[in-house]
Specification:
With 466 residues, the chain is an alpha/beta fold. It is 36% helix and 15% strand. Helix 1 packs across helix 4, helix 3 packs across helix 9 and helix 7 runs parallel beside helix 8.
């Protein structure tokens, strides 16, 4: 089969709802328990067969591959925004989604339209490899299907670059099949420990498989355990690994709940201040990684002018990461879902709360250390509004209540996220600050509520309404 869909009006094609129903027929580990990775569960050879039948779309444009534990979405969004400002047609593939599955796949900042999404799913579904018996499908997960769809769409749209965010893990994650121009490793910490291992060293060793021979790699500042594994992997495959300096390379000028400005003493950026359209000091660490990555692209022969860097950072948009979505009372959405991210969030909020009371809407997935996250948040929170997210792997009200009571936290148990949001707004009044955190799925439910959209399906299947 070719990259471009061959027209044939006599063949019935899926509409959007049918395409979503087809996707929902595959295994979705985002809503089901995740088995520990092994070659029986994740056999990427068959996924490569699928891409081969599709014409290997991932080989038709340069790819920046982004992996890690924390900051992947922010790093991907910033690199994509800078490349677009430099005049490159840029594809962006991220996960998970907050509202619609289509937001995972973008070209030049625009999410894929319903008709084109359905066309891709239909086209992939008609490959000969998809006709294998049910016990031998070419791809068995929703993530693999979406990855194939994104790579194919980028080829159809003739992108100059694709920024691809990794999924879960390293050597058996579907995105590892790409041969990137550059690999970027964001900070690695404890997350998905039941799947990837119970130590930072074990998780870093798995994620380090994204580093490939003859592909330069950039890494954010890392713990000693993670750094050691990345250095070892780079040595094994014989490739260059550059560590970004981190936030200490910048001179902060101003910061708020929706932006920050700083001076970056890099000769390639000139002497102008940088205005970043993202809040949080942790974003300075991500920015350092981004600037180091852009420098590598320039070295590889892809021009990016200083003005494009400045424009890209000032225009970057990202939902659910320390995102100010309304005022009076101020509402901040942040998808932090592990202690490492919560600590970074609190460090950023420390100078912005002032004398305002902080009201925290909280929920979490059952696999996450909710008790530790609540304990960290309790150092600044005046009250907690706890409710279950509409997702099969989310904690129940009983489980959330147990964690809150064990820590003797002031809390209100609510039936659902919209109720928790309304109660927090009532009690925070105009001078309070509301923080919704603990899960990206929680952030997504708040966004749905604010937009008047229906809540997600309780069984976690992909929503065919939006």
């Amino acid at each position: 089969m070719s990259i471009d869909r061959a027209p044939n009006s006599r063949i019935k094609r899926m509409n959007y709802r049918e395409a979503i129903a087809h996707l929902n027929s595959f295994i979705n580990f985002e809503r089901l328990p995740e088995p520990r990775f092994n070659t029986q569960i994740r056999d990427l050879d068959r996924f490569r067969e699928l891409l081969d039948e599709l014409g290997n779309p991932q080989s038709l444009y340069p790819i920046i591959h982004i992996a890690g534990t924390k900051g992947k979405g922010s790093t991907a969004a910033m690199i994509s925004s800078i490349l677009r400002a430099a005049g490159y047609r840029t594809g962006l593939y991220t996960s998970p989604h907050l509202v619609t599955v289509r937001e995972r796949i973008r070209v030049d900042g625009r999410i894929i339209p319903k008709a084109e999404f359905a066309s891709l799913i239909d086209y992939i579904g008609k490959t000969s490899t998809s006709s294998y018996p049910s016990n031998h499908p070419t791809y068995r997960t929703v993530f693999e299907y979406l990855t194939a769809a994104a790579l194919l769409w980028f080829a159809r749209k003739r992108v100059d670059f694709a920024v691809v965010e990794a999924g879960l893990g390293g050597k058996l994650d579907a995105t590892v099949v790409v041969d990137p121009l550059l690999t970027v490793m964001t900070p690695i910490g404890l997350d998905h420990t039941t799947v990837l291992g119970g130590s930072v060293s074990a998780i870093a060793a798995d994620k380090a498989h994204k580093i490939k021979s003859d592909v330069p790699a950039v890494a954010a500042r890392q713990s000693a355990e993670a750094r050691s594994q990345l250095v070892r992997r780079a040595g094994e495959v014989g490739t260059e690994l550059t560590f970004a300096p981190g936030h200490t390379e910048f001179e902060p000028l101003s910061s708020g709940l929706h932006h920050q400005s700083f001076f970056a003493p890099r000769r390639s950026l000139g002497n102008d201040a940088i205005h970043l359209n993202l809040a949080g000091r942790f974003q300075l660490d991500n920015t350092s990684t981004v600037l180091t990555s852009i420098g590598k692209l320039v070295e590889a022969g892809f021009p990016v002018a200083p003005r494009a860097v400045q424009r890209g950072l000032s225009r970057v948009r990202l939902q659910g990461r320390m995102q100010l979505v309304r005022r009076k009372p101020s509402l901040v959405l942040d998808g932090s879902h592990n202690p490492m991210s919560i600590e970074a969030l609190l460090e950023s909020l420390s100078g912005l709360i002032g004398n305002r009371s902080l009201h925290v809407i909280f929920s979490a997935m059952r696999s996450k250390p909710a008790g530790r996250m609540l304990e960290l948040l309790s150092s600044v929170a005046a009250n907690f509004y706890i409710a279950p997210i509409s997702f099969p792997k989310g904690m129940t009200n009983g489980e959330l209540r147990s964690e809150a009571e064990h820590l003797h936290l002031p809390h209100v148990i609510c039936t659902d996220i919209p109720s928790a949001f309304d109660r927090a707004c009532l009690e925070a009044r105009s001078n309070g600050l509301i923080l919704a955190t603990g899960s990206l799925y929680l952030a997504g439910e708040v966004i749905r509520h604010l937009r008047g959209l229906p809540p997600p399906y309780l069984d976690g299947r992909i929503d065919d309404r939006i």
